[in-house]
Amino acid sequence: MKNNNLPILPERRLFLALSAIALLAGGLLLFTFAGTDTSRFFCTSSDNLFHSKPDPIQLKSILHYATSRIVPQQSFSEITISFDVLRAISPCNLLVFGLGHDSLMWASFNAHGKTLFLEEDPTWVRTVLKDAPELKAEVVKYRTKLAEADELMRTYRSEPECAPAKSYIKGNTRCRLALTGLPDEVYDTEWDMIMVDAPRGWFAEAPGRMAAIYSATVMARNRKKSGVTHVFLHDINRKVERAYANEFLCQKYRKHSVGRLWHFEIPPASNVTDDNHGAWFC
């Protein structure tokens, strides 16, 4: 058996000393020949460093969800659909109707893009931003109530300012489904992805998501950039969300259906040839 208490022999001391000197000399020689450019010896090319340094909001998101008992309302399978789209198109312009426990997650998925949250409750906005000041959120006032959903669906076609041929929301006070009180940044930005997971829509006096769905459709149709606008609608198990999705977002543009989430790819109106001569959205 090996005795670890035996003294180190002089010959072994000399060997260890010579080995250390050789390693030091070799290192100095290597950097002498390499100069300041060490890329020829080490994997430090720009390609290998792509996304190697996390954004601060991504690090905060990891810390937040790793230490919190509160999780996003959407399921893993629902989030995965949106995540896959963001992974393909990010950095991009992401507009989210709703500010909640998943907001830090969406912002971190699009860390190098523009992410804006629209929320109806100013008190809730202050609460969320207190813990996550990195998020960008705006308070939105809605002109509708969930109790009006059926009436709005019956009457919007009789209002010319709601028609696809008009297709605008800023200043469109005659169309009750148009969100006219949004910040200019919303109107001035071409959004690559729109998530509709708000406002509240489960009691009669709540705003409902009718205007959010209509306005998301108009923004997508008015897109000038190439490609489609990805629109995600959550809670399609509810009557109003499903009816308004079928009326404005159109089943022919639906790409995925997972759990309570529908994903649409809406092309610009300029790229669409339809049979109703632009009279209706679908």
Explain briefly what this protein structure is.
This is Polysaccharide biosynthesis domain-containing protein. This protein is an alpha/beta fold and 282 residues long.
Describe this structure in words.
- The chain is of the alpha/beta class.
- It has helices spanning 10-34, 56-67, 76-89, 103-109, 122-131, 149-155, 184-188, 210-221, 239-249, and strands at residues 93-97, 114-119, 137-139, 193-196, 229-234, 254-258, 261-266.
- Helix 2 (56-67) packs antiparallel against helix 4 and helix 8 (210-221) runs parallel beside helix 9.
- 30% of the residues are buried.
- It is a single-pass membrane protein.
- It is found in: Golgi apparatus membrane.
How many helical elements? 9
Shape: globular
How many beta strands in the DSSP annotation? 7
**What is the N-to-C order of secondary-structure elements (H for helix, E for strand)?**
HHHEHEHEHHEHEHEE
What's the oligomerization state? single chain
| Rg estimate, integer Å | 28 Å
Give the N-terminus to C-terminus distance in angstroms. 85 Å
Share of helical residues: 25-40%
Largest sheet: 7 strands, mixed
Average pLDDT level: 84
Q: Output the strand order for the largest sheet.
A: 3-2-1-4-5-7-6
Question: Helix/strand/pairing class, anyone?
Answer: alpha/beta
